[in-house]
Amino acid sequence: MKKGLWTKNFTIITIGTIISSIGGVAMNFALSFVVFDNSGSTLLMGIYSALSLIPTVVLPIVIAPYLDRYKRKPFIVGLDFLNGLLYLGFAFLISKIGFVFGVYLAFSLTTATIGTIYQQAYTSYYPNLIPKGFAQKGYTVSSMIYPTVNVVITPLASYLYTQMGIEFIMVFEGIMLLVASLFEAMIDYRETQHGSGRFDLQAYREQFRAGWQFLKKEKGLQKIYAYMPIMQGLSEGSSSLIIAYFQTTPGLGITLYSLFTIAEFLGRSIGGIVHYRYEIPAKKRFRFACIVYYIYPLMDALLLWLAYPLMLLNRSICGFLGINSATLRESSVQNYMPDENRAKLNAFFHVAYSLVSMFCRFTAGALGEILDYRFCLMLFAAIEIFSCTWIIYRNQELVKPIYNQNY
């Protein structure tokens, strides 16, 4: 067997993820603007964004025990293929009827349902494809995929959106998902099946209870699962306001916003290369992550008060720090959890994240109607700093063993 990180299975899942991300970046970029462009309302944009998360609140808990009992690869391959067909079909539909808020929302709910199941399967399956001893490097690679694709595709998506419309981008996304499913089908990792091959309600309940009991006794995981949804939810709420700020501020606009993402990419790229080549010593991981958790919201609070060149510098610093802390957290948490409970524990996190994110997106949209976008970002940053102090820093003796473990 080939030694090192780049085994056949890891290479295939990386290629599949890259292909899927190419279409996903273009699609997410277009959807970020299409509702605001057609309504001019941050509130409606916030409502749309929040309601689109409804499936992510319910489904992870429902599907997770099943995913921990049975094979995850069929979900990954089949759902990418199905989602690709849906995007192609929706592109044809909107080419005939144009923008209808309810239709867009129904489509988002459908794709969010499929995407939620897919994400649960992917997150639980991915650690098994990383060779033992290469967790940090493996998660550094995965953390680099989205920002790298983002900087390459976002300017292209900006052009395609303004020149050819969202229908073309949806066709592009559909094709990318179909191609990704073909690559994922070539993975030959043999999964351990913990179930009998048929659905068993009693076994399902026992699986769910086992995951919950494990989380109840893991106080450190509880703190991480409490803080991370707050941090990510506030970040997503801030992102929608940043988009609105660029759209409504003279001298900025969609093109500069697409270029704005390049600065964060450059920071993430440099950070990813550094993290890939030089691992942070185990005993220093928690301290480093905690420092980032304080710096990031401070940078967000300052962002919209800066001249555009300083905004670029701001995002570069955040990109550099963000990818390192995200890689540390993901590799630490995923390796800390036993494989038979990983999908359930990830489900608990995703449900918490979705609930907080829905609230933050709606709140951001509502606040954006009555307050200056810059003051909104400052408020969110203050909440994030307080949450980090109260949840993570005060309980560092519980959280440290997870971050500072050897793997």
TrEMBL record:
UniProt xrefs under Gene3D superfamilies: MFS general substrate transporter like domains
Highest taxon in the source lineage: Bacteria
One Pfam short name: MFS_1
This protein's record includes keyword Zinc-finger: no
Cell location: Cell membrane
Claim: RNA-binding is one of the keywords in the record: no
N-terminal signal peptide: none
Cited InterPro entries: MFS, MFS_trans_sf
Membrane topology of this protein: Multi-pass membrane protein
Keywords: Cell membrane, Membrane, Transmembrane, Transmembrane helix
Transmembrane stretches, start-end: 12-36, 42-63, 75-93, 99-118, 139-162, 168-187, 252-274, 286-308, 347-368, 375-393
Annotated protein name in UniProt: MFS transporter
